[in-house]
Amino acid sequence: MSSPAIDYDALEATTGIEEITADGNNQDTLRSLKKDELSALWLSPEWDEHGDYVLEGSTGELGWLGHFVKTSTRLERFGLYGSEVFKECSKQSVDKFLDDLGRCNHIKKMIFSSTNLDGIICKLGPAMKSNNITHLVVRGCYLGVPEATFLFNNLRDMISLEELYVNCEDEEEDLANLNDGAMAGCIPSLVACTSMQELKLNGLNLSTNSCDALSSVFSRMAALLELDLCGNLINDNCVVFLVRGLAECEQLQSLNLGRNTISDDGLDVLIQGLPASVNALYLRRNEVTLDRKIPLLRVKELVLWGNILSLDGPRT
User: Fold this and answer.
1) Which domain holds residue 193?
2) 280: in domain
3) Is this prediction's pTM over 0.85?
4) Cβ–Cβ contacts within 10 Å for residue 144, how many?
5) Which one of 89, 93, 110, 169 is separated from 44 by 20 to 30 angstroms, measured CA to CA?
6) Which pLDDT tens digit goes with each residue over 184-196?
7) Which residues of 188-217 are buried (b: 16+ CB within 10 A; e: fewer)?
8) Torsion over CA of 77, 80, 81 and 82, rounded to 10 degrees?
9) How far is it, in rounded angstroms, from Cα 261 to Cα 18?
10) Cα gap 309→195, rounded to integer Å
11) 307 falls within a domain
């Protein structure tokens, strides 16, 4: 049975910040939020700077945070850090907080770092849709097909998005339980993101089908400046699809395809087919050997660290 709803509006005038939380740092953050002076709120397991908040699980603590968040007109950045950020909070209080977060219409940047999104991401839809979010960062979080599907489906309503950074690369843990087919089904949602300037999809097992899907959405990203697709399953055939779509991204400046399986054939396709605007190409830890002549001087900055290069092959 759920607890009766608390009327925070009625209690606000008679409830002191010290009654909500005993932690001095939390009090400072909550006081700034109440006064509508806080531009960034970061829920984390430990306090680092003003704007951080460590949930202690006191009665109504998360409810008060949500109450002040939903009325804020200055809160522009919100983040969750750590897999146990809500460990002291009831499911009901977490659900209510996420609902309140969705009523704050001024958030521009949302960050989820090393967070357990299971049971949370499906309730973040209103918060992601109601705000004119320009930057969305999901790093170090486990993503299965359900989580990735929900995340990308919400992108259809995020027409102001300028940066999408999803990073599941981890040397110690496999964070992405994804496959190329599933991601190929997710990627078409990016077609709505016509303001995209930085797109970073790392460690998501992207391969042929995903790159084909990406090729189709690049034509809608005329403002794209930076593309990172590191730590995926991108080979020479994938590169053909990518270059075909990127030919229309005439403002693209930087392409990072590190930690994939691209060989000399793929490098040649990139060098010959990328827009003239590209001045930086990063291919760390691929399968490039440079055992034949490739016009490397086509790009101003070419990084091939971690490839096994031929000692005898031509360089330009």
Assistant:
1) 8-228
2) no
3) yes
4) 14
5) 169
6) 999 999 999 999 9
7) ebbbbbebbbbbbbbbbbbbbbbbbbbbeb
8) 180
9) 56
10) 38
11) no
